[in-house]
Design a protein that fits this description.
Layout (H helix, E strand, L loop, with lengths): L26 E4 L2 E4 L2 H12 L18 H14 L10 H8 L2 E4 L4 E4 L1 H7 L2 H7 L5 E5 L11 E3 L9 H13 L8 E2 L2 E2 L4 H15 L9 E6 L2 E7 L6 H6 L8 H9 L9 H10 L7 E5 L4 E7 L6 H11 L1 H4 L3 H13 L2 E2 H7 L4 H13 L4 E3 L6 E3 L33 E2 L3 E4 L7 H15 L6 H11 L4 E2 L1 H8 L3 H14 L3 E3 L11 E3 L7
Parallel strand pairs: 5-9, 17-18
Antiparallel strand pairs: 1-2, 3-4, 5-6, 7-8, 9-10, 10-12, 11-12, 13-15, 14-15, 16-17, 19-20
Length: 527
């Protein structure tokens, strides 16, 4: 075996492209293939390369009237409490904002004003949208899965509060920690109200805000559930995940915001935030935090799961479905099934995080579980994920239940790795087991005039494909099984021509995309 490992390009070298012009010549690696990057993605890469700090820019046409002065006052009060006697506490508001980096001067063009960081930290939401059209911060408290409710509490910029970053941090942190049990501890005669869990949640919330790419189309999202906390920020990490978890390296996307939070006691510049989160969570004997990146659009997710490594509920569920067969499995196989039950799905990378087995042994073990029908796989190559056979994974949302398989439907964004849902499209049925029994029977009835015959008129086959795809996105392997035809032959002779004729609509631009699925462009009578 010859293994060629291509390292991830550092921020300063992106975008990697062909020729002299990055636009139209930049390709992104999506697991097993390379796909063209759109111009917006290329512009974001160029900005990341040139701007060490994305919030440094001094804005034209913005002034103090665009700020929420109640937020400024709350920040100054916190600053005075953290740094009593500091010389900045007695400064006027304009001078104070200049000292902390909220305002500044563009020395090349000779004008002064608000920095983007100052507008984000203290501005009003409607004004922030003038500078950042896609700006959105969202907090959701969700009930236990299966209740039918999306959330029981939600905080978004709706006009009832400022909608800025600092106000969002203050309100959300209180909501995240409202139900935490605080042990009784004294220090110098004073009760300590802070715990390692408080510290971890604080670090996670600050990290989400200071590393967010606010020019991206994805919102900042914070989710609280009875058994986990979830954090999402737009933009990929600037350093590899393994290096970030190890600590010691800091490459913050919004350094002015980072400094302003640090001045009032939140976060630091030492790259120790993630190690602190992992260490504090481990101290509670909870499952290791899950940190991963998704693309299309770019985003970073962190899940803090409040489950023990072998939760009793998951073990009970597996024993109910598998009986004594579960207890007889080797330890690594039991851990894999428990992880899938607890987190809603399983990845090879996740199992590497929580076990000490060699990656090759993990691959063999997962293949064995799939062969024995103890796990069901989806995706290809590095994008492959695994589910328990009885899990209904088609409608799982971001941070829903016990793991993340896709993103919340109200935000219209999902995980491209799973191939189960597509942005603004709905479910993509790429494999036969993804369809419910009712949907399978319904589609089989439509396909029967073709599936029961070896040869049919091309027009009948085209009409049947359009009828099958009317109302849902079906992958070519699903269509091939329904029609009893070869998937490659279907693609070449029917699917591609129907897309060219605008009778079928494809989920993704490339016909070779492993997540590709098709739906009809027009209404077709299914009767």
């Amino acid at each position: 075996m010859l293994r060629v490992e291509v390292p991830r390009a550092i921020r300063k070298l992106k975008p990697v492209h062909l020729g002299n012009n990055p636009f139209g010549n930049t390709y992104l690696r999506r697991h097993e293939g390379d796909y063209p990057a759109d111009d917006e993605t290329v512009r974001r890469m160029l900005a990341e390369r040139v701007e060490d700090s994305r919030d440094e820019r001094v804005l034209k046409g913005f002034d103090f009237s665009d700020l929420d002065m109640e937020t400024v006052a709350a920040y100054r009060n916190r600053f005075a409490a953290v740094k009593p006697g500091h010389v900045w506490t007695d400064l006027s508001v304009p001078d104070f904002l200049e000292r902390i980096g909220a305002t500044g001067k563009n020395r090349e063009e000779g004008y002064s004003g608000l920095r983007l960081a100052g507008l984000l930290m203290f501005g009003r939401a409607e004004v922030i949208h003038d500078a950042l059209p896609y700006y959105m911060v969202d907090y959701q408290e969700r009930p236990e899965s299966g209740t039918g409710q999306r959330w029981i509490d939600r905080l978004v910029p709706d006009g009832s509060w400022s909608g800025n970053i600092y106000d969002f941090f203050r309100r959300v942190y209180q909501k995240l920690t409202a139900d935490l049990k605080v042990p009784f501890q004294l220090q110098d005669g004073q009760r300590i109200e802070d715990t390692p869990v408080h510290e971890a949640l604080r670090e996670a919330l600050v990290n989400t805000l200071i590393h967010a790419d606010f020019s991206g189309r994805v919102s900042v999202l914070v989710v609280k559930q009875p058994d986990m906390f979830g954090f999402r920020n737009p933009g990929l990490m600037r350093v590899p995940i393994a290096q970030a978890v190890m600590g010691g390296t800091s490459d913050c996307r919004n350094r002015r915001l980072q400094t302003m939070f640090q001045l009032v006691g939140y976060g630091d510049h030492a790259g120790s935030g993630l190690p602190k989160i992992y260490h504090n969570w481990q101290g509670q004997h909870w499952r290791r935090p899950v940190l991963h990146e998704l693309t299309e659009p770019d985003q970073t997710l962190m899940e803090l799961l409040m489950n023990s490594l072998l939760p009793e509920q998951a073990v009970t569920e597996l024993e109910r479905h598998l009986g004594q067969k579960f207890s007889a499995l080797p330890p690594l196989e039991r851990l894999a099934l428990v992880t899938a039950a607890t987190e809603g799905m399983l990845r090879h990378a996740r199992l590497r995080e929580i076990s000490t087995e060699h990656p090759a042994d993990i691959s063999k073990m997962l293949a064995k579980l799939v062969k024995e029908n103890l796990l069901v796989s989806e995706g290809v190559g590095r994008g492959m994920v695994y589910f328990l056979p009885w899990q209904d994974r088609r409608f799982m949302t971001l941070f829903e239940g016990r793991g993340a398989s896709s993103l919340s439907p109200e935000l219209g964004v999902i995980s491209p790795e799973l191939g189960a849902i597509s942005p603004e499209l709905g479910p993509l049925y790429l494999e036969w087991p993804q369809l419910s029994n009712v949907l399978q029977q319904y589609l089989e009835e439509i396909a029967q005039p073709v599936s029961t015959r070896k040869r049919v008129a091309p027009e009948l086959l085209r009409t049947t494909i359009l009828a099958l795809c009317n109302g849902q996105y079906l992958g070519r392997r699903v269509l091939a099984q329904l029609l009893n035809r070869h998937p490659d032959d279907l693609l070449k002779r029917f699917l591609n021509p129907l897309v060219d004729q605008q009778l079928l609509k494809s989920a993704f631009p490339s016909s070779s995309d492993p997540r590709q699925a098709y739906t009809t462009q027009v209404n077709v009578d299914k009767n």
